[in-house]
Amino acid sequence: MLLPVFEDTPLNDLNSLRLPASAKRYAEIHSAEQLLKLVRRGDLDGQRVVVLGGGSNVVLRGNLEAFVLHIRIPGRALVSELDDAWIVRAGAGENWHEFVRFTLEHGWPGLENLSLIPGTVGAAPIQNIGAYGVELADRFFALEAVDLRSGQIVSLDRETCQFAYRDSLFKQQAAGRFIITAVSFRLPKQWHAVTAYADVANELKALGLSEPTPTQLSDAVIGIRSRKLPDPAVLPNAGSFFKNPVVSAERFAALAEAWPKLPYHPQADGSVKLAAGWLIEQAGWRGRSLGRAAMYEKQALVLVNLGGATGEDVLRLADSVSAAVQEKFGVALEQEPVLL
């Protein structure tokens, strides 16, 4: 059966910022086999290929002169049980949060701190998503992907994926080469709650939970995120718009002297991670708009579409916010969403 391919397809409802755009060619991919057929027939040859998952980490500047592949590959299963861990696999098109809850419902903890992060399982390794002291890389086992260069399905382990803070092989030297079809996670049997972040600790204290279960910790994270972050279905947004900047210990010392209330998180290599949302708020951009785009009033790190914003509106606001933070603190911000 031939895979349906559509021309000039609107993408407005397929990106969480609800920015207006269309794809020159568009197809939904429901299996790795469908994707392989496209590659091996040469359907993608000579074309710009754009891969779309949940659309929660992209900024669409405008219409895409590209073949957009919307990855909808399903599947969730325990594939192996080791002495110290469960290996759980999910199709790239699975909703990330629903997958997290699926693992908890089956007694396989480890992903609870990553609850309610928008997007799909297949997009998660690209960004190396993280929240409240846990990154995807901490629980990653392997992934399967179609290599557009060879036309084969390959398996990539943790080392090969070269994970870093909100970064991976797929955003660097291998950008555009692989299309992820499934991801497997190593979830520990000897589980312990990661509660070092103040927001999490305070939430658990308010709930009277000194030793939370994995599901209770997930519920706490959901509560925190629900209060801080707008629902994209109600107020279009792409979640955290900027990465938390990392500075040297020397630079941090100078900043902390000038700004004693500056939130920070020491890193293993001696550098210090700063809170981008705090920097943006102090620079005067919390709740402020530029045209139809704005920084969210409850969380300055989140950029929202007030209705009718375009990709160019979003980028103008992002540039203005970055410039304000640079001028006030001498710290450069880097945006998280991918510009298409």
From TrEMBL:
In UniProt terms, what function does this protein have? Cell wall formation.
Alphabetically, the GO molecular function entries are:
UDP-N-acetylmuramate dehydrogenase activity
Indicate the family of this protein.
Answer: Belongs to the MurB family.
- The reply to whether Protein biosynthesis figures as a keyword in the UniProt entry is no
Q: Which residues form the active site?
A: 166, 240 (proton donor), 336
Q: What is this protein called?
A: UDP-N-acetylenolpyruvoylglucosamine reductase
Q: Which Gene3D superfamilies match?
A: 3.30.465.10, UDP-N-acetylenolpyruvoylglucosamine reductase, C-terminal domain (3.90.78.10), Uridine Diphospho-n-acetylenolpyruvylglucosamine Reductase, domain 2 (3.30.43.10)
Question: Is Nucleus one of the keywords UniProt gives this record?
Answer: no
UniProt keyword terms in alphabetical order: Cell cycle, Cell division, Cell shape, Cell wall biogenesis/degradation, Cytoplasm, FAD, Flavoprotein, NADP, Oxidoreductase, Peptidoglycan synthesis
Pathway(s) annotated for this protein in UniProt: Cell wall biogenesis; peptidoglycan biosynthesis
Q: InterPro entries attached here?
A: FAD-bd_PCMH, FAD-bd_PCMH-like_sf, FAD-bd_PCMH_sub1, FAD-bd_PCMH_sub2, MurB, MurB_C, MurB_C_sf, Oxid_FAD_bind_N
Q: What is its main location?
A: cytoplasm
- Please name the source species: Uliginosibacterium silvisoli
Classify the source by domain of life. Bacteria
State which gene encodes it. murB
